[in-house]
Amino acid sequence: MPQSSAASGPADSPLGRYLLHPGQETAAFFHHVLHAVAVLGHVAVPIAGGVGALLVAWKVLQGFGRLRAPTSGHLVEVELPPVVDPKGSAVFWRNVHSVLAGRRRLVSPPPHVAFEIEGSPAGVRLRFWVAACVSAKAVARAIGSAWPGARCHVHDATSPVMCGRFVLSGELRLAGPSWRSLSTEHTSDPLRTVIGALEAERDGEHAVVQLLARPATSRQTRAVTRAVRSLHTGKPTALVPRLLAAWRTTSPPPLRPDPFRAASVRHGVDKVTDLPAFEVCVRYGVASGSDARGSRRRLSARASELTAAFGVYAADTHFVARRRPGCRRALERRTLRRGQVVGLSELAALAHLPSDEMVPGLAYAGAAAVAPPPGLASGAWDETSEDDDDWL
After folding, report:
1. DSSP state of 312
2. Where does the pLDDT of residue 1 fall: very low under 50, low under 70, confident under 90, or very high at 90 and above?
3. Which of 96, 113, 242, 336 has the maximum number of C-beta atoms within 10 A of its C-beta?
4. Overall average pLDDT of the 34-60 stretch
5. Mean pLDDT of the chain
């Protein structure tokens, strides 16, 4: 019979070698790992560096695109029809959403539309500002279809006049989180108090209210949805509380019935389902060219009156005035960097044509020109006229 091979010893297996010489085996293992990392580093490091450089350049370009103000555009001056349908505002903003949603660009932010009401000694002007990359005629047709009888005049954009000895400007921000809703049901037109606060009582004074809107991104809508779901289930959405909750050994106690939380969840669900959603920013500005004593105090009081006029929208949340540096420049250039999410009904209540029968200072459209009957153009009327002459 053949001689059997010698029995294998402890040094023949990796575990045995490690138990016999732990330091030597550990050093050899790390030596192989570092060698593999050095070999892969010649290829992986340049690739990772290139990808990182591209991401940094992309973010820088996006930042410059957001800081760059729209230098051109069009203004759509609106003359009110004799009868304004209050439900037409939702139809208008739904059409504008479809117009703006198809204008996504890579570097610069998506375009937006500005709704402006300006009060001066000459009266109250209502207009829409449209970016140059958006068709102003499409917005004008949306106005005409939402409010039949309205007349639109399209011309090149000009900045809101915020010149004078004293100028005060600021933003109106939501006091609570974005999932809290504003009031959308009003017995009277909510713009009545805003237009009343915009009317100029002295020469050289003018004020403007500006609402900028664009379609909300999917990330913003998902954030609002997660907040409402967290309020309903009681589970946190932030990273650190979620990690702490995951390491808990005991299950959390069940939520107790709370009618206030149930009402908040109901309002949040109504806002999440109020689609399409928009990202909006509301700004205001008042200016006075008077040098009289107490003009600045009077201008501050008028700014407070203008911001208080938006108290009619208070419901689950309300607007709070914030005076920030650079707000006057942003108002004149109509820039929208970061806004807050609102639903379609909320935006329709904020920006619409006044539904009152007669608003002092606003321009109303006259009678529209009607095309002649087809028979008149074809000459049938002339033949009828000749027969009438023969009869006479």
Report:
1. G
2. very low
3. 96
4. 75
5. 78
Exposure class string for 61-94: b at 16+ Cβ within 10 A, else e: eeeeeeeeebeebbbbebbbbeebeeebbbebbb
Bond before 276 cis per omega within 30 degrees? yes
Burial 186-220 (b: 16+ CB within 10 A, else e): eeebbbbbbbbbbebeeebbbbbbbbbbbbbeeeb
Q: Please, are residues 235 and 245 in contact by the beta-carbon 8 Å criterion?
A: yes
For the entire predicted model, the pTM comes to 0.73
Q: Is the dihedral of CA 183, 186, 191, 192 positive or negative?
A: negative
Dist. CA 32–CA 127, nearest whole Å = 71
Q: What are the chain's domains?
A: 72-242+258-350 (3.40.462)
66 sits in which H/E element: helix 22-67
Nearest alpha carbon to residue 269 among 179, 365, 362, 188? 179
